[in-house]
Amino acid sequence: MERESFYETAKSLAVVDVPVAHPENTVKETIERILGKKYASASHIVVLEGGKLVGIVTAEDLFSANPEDRIGHIMDKDPPRASPDTDQEVVAWQAVQRGEYAMPVVDHYGYFLGLIPPYTLLKVLLQEHEEDLSRMAGILGPDSTAVSYSGAPMKKRVVYRLPWLLVGLAGGFFAAGVVGMFEKELEKHVALAFFIPTVVYLADAVGTQTEALVVRAFALGLPADIRKETKTSTAIGFVLFLFSLITIWLFWKDFKIAFVVSLAILIASSVAGFVASLLPLFFKRLGLDPAHGSGPLATVIQDIISVFIYFLVASLLL
């Protein structure tokens, strides 16, 4: 179910039983032809010429137009359109961007294949939103949307949520091992322990923001620039570096500790941005939902790297 929903295409969502008109038809003729008929969707009138899509008219525009007007005069001559193999989320996003609430599907030559109705686009947006949130929360299952999860029995709830948490537990043990490698530094500078949560949290936060943007870009068919995201994370890390350096120095009166913590935040934030960009790309290359490259998995990896960076910097500078 997971792969099916992720790769569902525009053609599979389209319905062909919709009102159709020719550009030379009058508004009156079109209304008379569609009145009394039941369609799979009647929100839009598809305007065809020789089987090719040449325009689209909303029901509101049709019934508010002058009865003698030609359809060609009131139609949208350049409506958004989707190719048959376009991913469902990309289709929904394009419709929203164009201010449309239905989407025609055409082939490579412009021949009309069907119309994705408003309720289907709304369903796609809701479904994709829930699935992305579930992936980021680390909820796995054949159908991991909020609705299905809320109705699942306790056993399935545990099964859905436990896998990534076990990965997180293993990562926590590994991170503890990393801290143990720098036991001498901790003994010499106990204050280092005070700032472990700060370094780890900020790196996680920067990574989470990057993950959300990269996953969304992939889902909408937009390019995700790893270099640009890493530069952005580094710039954010530099601002955090300045704030933390001044604050720790003022409150703890120890410039060396302040510099070590601040420099670790800068480096960890930069690395977190890079890792958060790379993981969704890795899953996309495997043919999986890029959202799997976020949430608990990314958090575990970033936490281990952040702890290692923190104590490595401390061991080199203190």
Descriptive account of the structure:
By secondary structure, the protein is mainly alpha-helical. The protein folds into two domains: 8-124, CBS-domain; 168-317, SLC41 divalent cation transporters, integral membrane domain (Tetracycline Repressor, domain 2). It has 15 helices and five strands. Strands 1-2-3 form a three-stranded mixed beta sheet. The protein has a two-stranded antiparallel sheet with strand order 4-5. A hairpin with a 5-residue loop joins strand 4 (103-106) and strand 5. The longest helix is centred in the last third of the chain and has 31 residues, at 255-285. The protein starts with a helix and ends with a helix. Mean pLDDT is 85; it is low at 1-7.
Which series of helices and strands comes N to C?
A: HHEHEEHHHEEHHHHHHHHH
Secondary-structure class = mainly alpha
Unreliable parts: 1-7
CATH architecture of the largest domain: Orthogonal Bundle
Work out the helix count: 15
In CATH, the topology of the largest domain is named Tetracycline Repressor, domain 2
What is the element layout, followed by pairings?
Layout: H1 2-6, H2 10-13, E1 20-21, H3 27-34, E2 44-49, E3 52-58, H4 59-64, H5 71-74, H6 88-97, E4 103-106, E5 112-116, H7 118-137, H8 146-150, H9 154-181, H10 183-188, H11 191-194, H12 196-219, H13 226-252, H14 255-285, H15 296-317
Parallel strand pairs: 1-2
Antiparallel strand pairs: 2-3, 4-5
Helix pairs in contact: 6-7, 9-15, 12-14, 12-15, 13-14, 14-15
